[in-house]
């Protein structure tokens, strides 16, 4: 029997491989959500794995933007029944533990939505480097959104001298001196990603403990 191929060329094969990866990420996220609800994984394990899946999803979804404009439609076409995953990946954008910590924190007036917005903006900015989106007119809007979301949190949750705010301001100042079409060098891009990642880790550490 002649082998039936889904693709006609290398580009189509890569697209279907990406479809398979996207399907796997959604299914894995759905199983993780169910495991967390059933207390089969610890909060720390859940959060670490969920953050990784969200980052993978955002990176892959950006790369497939033209081929998969709607994840809901993708789920419908491939009969992907995973409502918990779709909510986590598309609506929330952050692990449930992050939402809970923000919502129950008595020491902060920051809402879960504000924290979620910061997390999403951190991840989006970091993903831009991974996708080689390093032109000033690509990076600056993402960094500006991150700066705005950090300001919205106020000083209730984060200290006034929070390193993330300082580093974001420094990068915005640096980008302002460059032309829109200018691109970060490889060294600058690595430093930019490093600064964002360290700031993100500091931000997550500043949130109340997941089990408190």
UniProtKB/TrEMBL annotation:
Domain VPS28 C-terminal: 110-208
InterPro entries: ESCRT_assembly_dom, Vps28, VPS28_C, VPS28_C_sf, VPS28_N, VPS28_N_sf
Gene3D superfamilies (alphabetical): 1.20.120.1130, 1.20.1440.200
Molecular function via GO: protein-containing complex binding
Protein keywords: Endosome, Protein transport, Transport
Any one of the GO BP annotations: protein transport to vacuole involved in ubiquitin-dependent protein catabolic process via the multivesicular body sorting pathway
Superkingdom of source: Eukaryota
Gene Ontology terms: cellular component: ESCRT I complex
Subcellular location: Endosome
Location (main, coarse): other
VPS28 N-terminal domain: residues covered: 1-100
Alphabetical list of Pfam families matching this protein: VPS28
Cited function: Component of the ESCRT-I complex (endosomal sorting complex required for transport I), a regulator of vesicular trafficking process.
Family according to the record: Belongs to the VPS28 family.
Protein name, entry field: Vacuolar protein sorting-associated protein 28 homolog
Organism this protein belongs to: Musa acuminata subsp. malaccensis (Wild banana)
